[in-house]
Each structure stands twice: as structure tokens, then as C-alpha cells.
Design goal:
four-stranded mixed sheet; Polyamine Oxidase, Chain A, domain 2; 12 helices; binds flavin-adenine dinucleotide
Length: 346
């Protein structure tokens, strides 16, 4: 049974040094969380507009834009100039998008194991080629060839874009255009373990004006003892900047940020680790971002090809659900219904 913890009441250390609950921080600083507490004026984005241009046009100050970069864009997976304003605003205006933040206390994989129970799932089968035609679909893997009437493709967008999986014949032009109009955001996580607590015991998250901008302790909610492990997420330009001299240099830059923020120039971790989704051949990025001018691209990616190739995964989920686990889950239910409807109509 999966257990959850709501994190809105968790304490967060702000850049001014004060400690607040998430809710207090949002009330105190109206620009604390763009997607929750900012009432955006009722001005529609232009079709080709990127989020940064749109926010400037509706009157955001440089300080507010900087916050949008550090908070919203970093969590979204790319920098403001790559994010479709139409897509982002559709997400902000969608009232069905979430009721706060939660953590799965027994680990995220418990969710996958629960969903997978009783199913025939073959791990370690690397798909290399998908051959599709009038009769069937043949999927070539490192452990043999599988034949089916139709397939559901849930490969990460970055893998599809990399060409690591060959389609024979190639995908139609409209599907290739959809793939080209969504970006797989680059992202890394920096993880540091310390011998002693580095922040007040009750603090679980920290927002920095430096790079990386978002820090939290993965021990929060799981451990009663002081939090010794701190993690930072950097995507978009933050990620590109941190990685420019390699992974070891990125870890050092992250540590320098923590040292400055905590005013502890000698702070040294017992251990550190970098997770690089850009370099992971089975991910090629963190999650998908719709680029300016292409707010329909997710829908186009989700559309079946010749009733043989069906599409699911986070990149095919609608705005507001994409780039999330629940979006990927909902896309799986959507594609199952598409195939059921097709079979019933025959
Ligand atoms: C740092 C980070 C933090 C996140 N935080 C959250 C969060 O707090 N809440 C939330 O809801 N979502 C979060 N997400 C997003 C969420 O993890 C994804 O949206 C979701 O996992 C996407 O599911 P998916 O099934 O579409 O793709 P994936 O989970 O990426 O699954 C695709 C699978 O395809 C496999 N694969 C790749 N290539 C091949 C191949 N050639 N052959 C066979 N298999 C292959 C991969 O190994 C993988 O298992 C986060 C993501 C990241 C990176």
C-alpha cells in the first residue's frame, strides 16, 4: 500500500534567510510560486510567443522574471525562451491540475511495482527497430523479435528524437514534425551527503538565487533524524552552465553555491553524486517541453499512425499533465481506450 505525505506545510528556507512553511512563503511573497499564487492578468499569449516574452509583455519586472526562471522554468525542464507561452498558460489556467505537492513515503518505485503486479513485463529488452506495415508490427530487440497487430510506443521523447530506435518505414512527416516541435529538457541532479546537519533540522527545501536554484532534502518525511542528504535540480540553462566543464566541475559548482548560501566556506560533503539524464541513453533528458508556436504538438504526437503505432508517455499527455507521472499514467489509459474502441468497431 503506497503511503503519501503532503508537503505544503513543510518548512523552506528563503533567500532572505527566513524560514517559512511553503504556504506562508507563498502568502508573504506573491511571486513565490508562479503557478499557484500568481493571478495572471487575463491576457492570452500569442501563438508563437515564448514564456519569457509573454511575461515581459504582461508587465513582469526583471526580479519577477528571475523568479520565473529559477522556480517555474527550472521545474518545467527548460529555459523560458524554449517554453511555449500558450502551453504554459493553458497549464496554469487548468483548474484540474493538482491539489498541492505530495511525497510517496515508501519510494516512487512502489507505484510502478503496484501497477505492474501480475503483468508479463520483460526487462532488459532494448528496442532497436520497429518495422510496421499493412499486416503487423515487428519489434526488433536485443533479445529477439516480437510480432504484434499493433504496438504502444512509450519511449522517452529524447530517445525517439535521437534515432536510437529505427522506424521502418520511417515515420510519416506529420509525426516527425510533432517530434521536432517538443523539446526534451536537459537536466541533472546533484546529491551531497554530509556528516552533520547543514541546515536547521526542520527545513526540507531551499531556494537559491544562485545555480543550482532548487534544493531539498530527500530525507524529509522519511527520516526523523536530521537531514544529512541534500539534492539540487538544475535544468535548461542552469544545467548547461553547470555541465560546461564536466560532471566533477558541476558538483564543485553546486557545492560552492551551498557554501555561499550557508556562509560556510569550508563545508565539505562526505560523499557526492551526479545524476545526468542528458547522458542517459534511455532517457536523453528529463521531460518534455512544448516549444513556442507548437502548442498542438503533444496532441499530434499522441495520434496513432495507421492504427498500427499507438503513442503514450508523458510527452503525449495534455498541457498540465505532461512531464509528470500522472500524465504518463493517464496517457496509458487513453491509449488503452483507443485500442479497445478500435477493436470494438471491427
Ligand atoms: C528529476 C526528475 C524529477 C521528476 N519529478 C517528478 C515529480 O515530482 N512528479 C511527477 O509526477 N513527475 C516527475 N518527473 C517526471 C516523471 O518522472 C516522468 O514524466 C515520467 O516518468 C514519464 O513516464 P514515461 O512512461 O513517459 O517515461 P519513462 O518513465 O522515461 O519510461 C520510459 C521507459 O523506456 C525505457 N527505454 C528507453 N529506451 C528504450 C529502448 N530503446 N528500448 C526499451 N526501453 C527503452 C526507459 O528505460 C524507461 O524505462 C520527474 C522527472 C525527473 C527526471
Amino acid at each position: 500500500m503506497t503511503q503519501w505525505k503532503k508537503t505544503d506545510d513543510s518548512l523552506v528556507r528563503l533567500a532572505d534567510g527566513s524560514v517559512r512553511t511553503m504556504q506562508e512563503a507563498r502568502a508573504l511573497y506573491p511571486d513565490f510560486d508562479l503557478t499557484r499564487s500568481w493571478a495572471l492578468p487575463d491576457i492570452d499569449p500569442l501563438p508563437d510567443e515564448d514564456l519569457g516574452t509573454y511575461l515581459r509583455r504582461i508587465g513582469f519586472s526583471e526580479a519577477q522574471l528571475d523568479y520565473a526562471r529559477r522556480s517555474f522554468a527550472n521545474a518545467t525542464g527548460e529555459s523560458l525562451r524554449y517554453i511555449s507561452a500558450q502551453g504554459a498558460v493553458a497549464e496554469m489556467r487548468d483548474p484540474s491540475c493538482g491539489r498541492g505537492d505530495f511525497r510517496i513515503l515508501d519510494g516512487y518505485d512502489s507505484l510502478a511495482y503496484t501497477q505492474a503486479a501480475g503483468l508479463d513485463i520483460r526487462l532488459g529488452h532494448i528496442v532497436q527497430r520497429i518495422m510496421w506495415g499493412d499486416q503487423n508490427v515487428r519489434v526488433v530487440t536485443n533479445h529477439g523479435i516480437f510480432t504484434a497487430d499493433r504496438v504502444v510506443i512509450t519511449l522517452p521523447l529524447g530517445v525517439l528524437q535521437s534515432g536510437a530506435v529505427e522506424f521502418d518505414p520511417p515515420l510519416p512527416a506529420d509525426k516527425q514534425a510533432a517530434l521536432a516541435h517538443i523539446r526534451m529538457g536537459p537536466g541533472i541532479k546533484l546529491v551531497y551527503r554530509f556528516a552533520e546537519p547543514v541546515m536547521a533540522a526542520e527545513i526540507m527545501a531551499y531556494y537559491s538565487p544562485l545555480n543550482p536554484p532548487m534544493w531539498w532534502s530527500p530525507s524529509a518525511g522519511q527520516s526523523e533524524s536530521p537531514y544529512l542528504v541534500w539534492t539540487a535540480l538544475a535544468t535548461g540553462d542552469y544545467c548547461r552552465d553547470l555541465l560546461k566543464d564536466g560532471e566533477a566541475a558541476a558538483l564543485q559548482m553546486g557545492l560552492e553555491t551551498l557554501r555561499k548560501e550557508l556562509n560556510r566556506p569550508d563545508l565539505t560533503p562526505v560523499d557526492s553524486y551526479l545524476v545526468n539524464w542528458v547522458a542517459d541513453p534511455y532517457a536523453r533528458g528529463v521531460y518534455s517541453v512544448v516549444t513556442p508556436g507548437h502548442s498542438e504538438a503533444r496532441l499530434e504526437l499522441a495520434t496513432p499512425v495507421d492504427n498500427r503505432l499507438f503513442w503514450a508517455g508523458e510527452a503525449t499527455a495534455p498541457h498540465g499533465y505532461a512531464a509528470t507521472v500522472h500524465g504518463a499514467y493517464a496517457s496509458g489509459k487513453r491509449v488503452a481506450q483507443e485500442i479497445i474502441s478500435l477493436m470494438e468497431s471491427r
